[in-house]
Amino acid sequence: xxxxIAYCGLDCEKCDAYLATRNDDQALRExxxxxxxxxxxxxxxxxxxxxxxxxxxxxxxxxxxxxxxIRQCALKKGVxxxxxxxxxxxxxxVAPILANNPEALKNLICEExxxxx
Length: 117
Description:
- The chain has one domain (about 1-115).
- Helices cover about 50% and strands about 0% of the residues.
- The protein contains 6 helices and no strands.
- The longest helix has 15 residues, at about 25-40.
């Protein structure tokens, strides 16, 4: 199911929140909550680490559900992924993801060309 590719192109199936949810792994939830809290300088609890994928129906982490600017933009524009957006090449919102993760751009291009969604 290709809807495990997030709006930004990251692969949700490689995300620790998704893996902790799928495998009901409390230790991974705790590790992920601690790391994400430190990285974002906000409180994140292990019970916040429950996600079935950015574009999939079902539960998402609070960040992915309502804070992620990329997801909010894609929903507002009504695109399946950023790969469907005409602003992709100049978008300052998704640029940091694409600059740090070449696989994300590749996923977006594959998503757009194949019509997976």
